[in-house]
Design brief:
Elements: H1 2-9, H2 13-20, H3 24-28, H4 35-50, H5 56-66, H6 73-82, E1 112-121, E2 127-135, E3 140-147, H7 152-166, E4 171-174, H8 183-192, E5 195-198
Parallel strand pairs: 1-4, 4-5
Antiparallel strand pairs: 1-2, 2-3
Length: about 200
Amino acid sequence: MAHRAVQQHGVSIRSACQAFQISQACYRYVTKRRMEDDEIAQWLLCLTDNNRNWGFGLCFLHLRNVRGFTWNHKRVSRVYRELELNLRIKPRKRLVREKPEALTVPDHCNEVWSMDFMHDQLEDGRSIRLLNVIDDFNREALGIEVDFSLPSHRVIRVLGQIMAWRGKPQAIRCDNGPEYISATLLNWASGQGIRIEHIQPGKPQ
């Protein structure tokens, strides 16, 4: 404001500083960028380019402890923000698959079942789990089990109850959850002559 008053309205520097209650030293101050800031910027660009997963903390520790520079934390942080290195977006890691596996289409009932969990929350904040079992042939819902906890032995009990009136499936398709890859469930399915088919990781369809 003081600069604008001096440049546009011809007010003296002394009058402008008195009007806006600032010192003349503050009005006349001009920031001088040191050569060391350019050196810090070059080091930060080099470090972040060679180590893309490094943040400010690792870069600063490397400069102080490995390279031996005496630059303080605030100074390096200011240059780091000016370069907008704090706005870098970390790329997501994606699983690489050469050929996706196509899901088999059953030709009759009880050929392939699918089971999976759903989650919900009660009004008081407690979480509940729902185990859903369907027949892949006609998308018939064979059972829905609801409880606060559904461990592997509970999953086996639900499957046994469904098999008592529906019959035994040839295979059961599920994801890679802990309840489905436990030794208890795998041993039970092997004793019943049922295949457990796990979907590909990252392929919920």
